[in-house]
Amino acid sequence: MADLEDEKTLRKIADAFKELAATVNSQTADMEVTPFSRACSFVSPLFGCLGIAFKFAEMDYVAKVDDLAKASKSIATLNAMLDRDIEDNCVRKARSHTRNLLRVKRGLDMVRVLFEQILATEGNSLKDPASKAYAQVFAPHHGWAIRKAVSAGMYALPTRAQLLKKLNEDECRCFGGRNPKAQTYATYATYGRLSISEASARIQMQNYVAASGPVIMYIDKLFLSRELGVDW
C-alpha cells in the first residue's frame, strides 16, 4: 500500500516545484520540458476541485499541459521550445507550444495567488481568496461574458474544509491530542490547535508559493528576453 503522504496532492505539487525552483536558482541549467510539464500536471486536480467557477481554467490548463508533455518527447528545454516556434513563425498561433506555455504559466500564477490569499485569510469560505486570485491573474485576459460566468460560479466554490478533503488532506486529528509523533514544537507554536490536515496544507501552500515564484519569473524572462511580451 502506498504511503498516504505520497498521495497528497499539495505535497506532490510543492515538492515538484521545489525541484524546478532549484534548477532556476542554480543558474547553470535550462529548464527541461519533461520535469516542467510533469510538475504542472500535479496542479491539474486542484482546478478540478474548485468547481464550476474554474471549469474553464481546468479544461484549458489540462489541455495545454498535455500539449507540453507531448512536446517534451521531441524538445528538450523550454528555451529550445520558444526558439523553435519563433523560427517557425507560429508563436501567437493557436495551439503553438509557446502560446500554451504562457497559458500554463498563467494557471500556475493563479494558484500561487490563490494560496497566498488562503494563507492570509481566516474562515472556511474560499470566495474572497478565489475572487482576488481570478481578478489579479485571469480577469484582465477575459471578456465580459466569461468574467460574469466566473463571478456567478464563485458562489458554488467548495469550502476550505471540502477542498482539503478533495485533495486528500482531511485527517481530523488535532495538535495537542493523542498523536505525539505528528506533533513538533515548531509546528505547534506556529499553528496552535489547527488540525493536522490544515497545518500540513498551509505548509505545502507556503512551499508552493515560495517555489513557484522563481519558476514563474523564469518563464516571464524567457518571453521578455525575446521581446514576445506576456500580456496576450
Would you mind describing this structure in some detail?
This protein is mainly alpha-helical. 65% of the residues lie in helices and 0% in strands. It is built from 10 helices and no strands. Helix 1 packs antiparallel against helix 2 (33-49) and helix 1 runs parallel beside helix 10. 34% of the residues are buried. Mean pLDDT is 87; it is low at 1-6 and 171-191.
SSE blueprint:
Blueprint (H helix, E strand, L loop, with lengths): L8 H18 L6 H17 L5 H17 L6 H10 L9 H24 L6 H11 L6 H10 L6 H7 L18 H7 L4 H29 L8
Helix pairs in contact: 1-2, 1-10, 2-3, 3-5, 5-6, 5-10
Provide the β-strand percentage band: under 5%
Structural class by helix and strand composition: mainly alpha
Rg over alpha carbons? 19 Å
Tally of strands: 0
Span between termini: 46 Å
Order of helices and strands: HHHHHHHHHH
The average pLDDT score comes to 87
Tell the overall outline: globular
Helix content: 55-70%
Which parts are unreliable, with pLDDT below 50 for 5 consecutive residues or more?
1-6, 171-191
Q: Biggest β-sheet, characterized? A: none
How many helical stretches? 10
In brief, what are we looking at here?
With 232 residues, the protein is mostly helical.
What descriptors fit this protein?
single chain; 232 residues; mainly alpha; disordered N terminus
